[in-house]
Amino acid sequence: MYGNLSYHAVYLTPSRGWVPERPAETNRKRYGDCKDFSAFLLSGAKQLGFQAAPVLVRINEGAVDPSMSPGPWFNHAISAIRLDRSLGLPAEIQTEAGRFLLVDPTDHYTPLGRLGGQHRGRWAMICLPDKAVWAKIPDAAILKETLLYALNGAVDSSGIFEGTLRIEERGDAHDLRSRAAENTAKDFSEFIRDSVLDLNAAAGCEVVGHSAPMDLASPFTVDVKLRVAEVMTSDGTEFDLRLPGFPGVPVRPFRNGAERKYPLDDRSALQLVYKAALKLPFTANPIAPDLEAATARRSYTWHARKGDDKGKVELAFDMTRKDARFDFADLKQGVQAFSADRASMLRLTQDGLAFKASP
After folding, report:
1. Which pLDDT score, from 0 to 100, does residue 159 have?
2. CA pair distance 246, 244, nearest whole angstrom
């Protein structure tokens, strides 16, 4: 399925929003939506002698659970394959109706036996021929998404950085794996420059290699050669660094002082580690060598050290994101929590990336 079907939601009739396509037609068209993929997987499992069932879940925009009254709360369909015995896979669940392996056939970049982060903390309704069975998706089933940046190179007195960056991705945390698999080399390189590293068109950014995107058992790695201006800006004896791909300051949870009217919902469990080893044109003394924070949206630690060689600095940032949702009744609390998170990231970029220069 992963190599032959593409995910597309095309509804030419009103009923297509609710009724899955016949598996033979999905196979002919080579595309479908989540319920088409689920029906296709159920058909294939039956041909191989397995019993399988469709599963209803809700991803993004709130959640469902067994306490809710019946209604059109679900927005995604996956599948459950009945197991006679455990295969030792994290996405297995034991229910009153037996053991099942949960599979999301729309997720091409999560290995069998795992589920993507959109299913974290969710409930699933397994739709059996005679009844529906609720099951909590186990935390162990969720593939941990991580990003590791390793930046190495030198910055000259005009603020130009030249060096290399290696990015290592587990899962599809930044869409690197999927972009590499589905796009041309040119488009993938532009995606790295524009979306991942947020560089302007004048920056030198060349993807010199990456690992096999469909090798789901291993992290996906990308090697980039960089030449970027204004990585360092100075103001007298103090200067600031702007590192390619370093997390930015989040936007305000409100605009122009206006009262927030919509829920605040930020779902993420991403772990990001950013390390940099830089050669600077002078000795750099970090203004804030150690920082840490724990907010509603993330926790992080920051360390900046002078290297053994003159002008060398070594930087290390380790951040873990958190789920944070504030509904209508908690909006005031949510705005305060998101504002505090923004303030902590602002301090990191203003103080953590600031240094004093000495001869």
Report:
1. 94
2. 6
Q: Residue 200: helix, strand or coil by DSSP?
A: coil
Instruction: Clarify whether residues 95 and 161 are in a common domain.
Output: no
CATH number at residue 63: 3.10.620
Q: What is the 3-state secondary structure (H, E, C) of 232-263?
A: EEEECCEEEECCCCCCCCCCCCCCCCCCCCCC
Cα(221)–Cα(200) distance, integer angstroms = 23
Q: What is the overall mean pLDDT for the chain?
A: 93
Domain end (from 141, 161, 189): 141
Q: CA-to-CA distance for 36 and 8, rounded, in angstroms?
A: 10
Q: What percent of the chain has pLDDT over 90?
A: 78
Which tokens in the block code for residue 43?
């058909």
Number of independent structural domains in the chain = 2
Give tens-digit pLDDT for 257-279: 677 878 888 889 999 999 999 99
Domain residue limits at 17: 6-141
In a domain, residue 50? The reply is: yes
| Closest by CA position to 137, among listed 110, 100, 169 | 100
The residues with which 152 forms a beta bridge, in sequence order, are 164, 277
Find out whether 78 and 57 touch, Cβ atoms under 8 Å. yes
Same domain flag for 14 and 84: yes
Per-residue DSSP letter, 195: I
Please indicate, yes or no, whether residues 153 and 286 belong to a single structural domain of this protein: yes
Structure tokens at 198: 């947020």
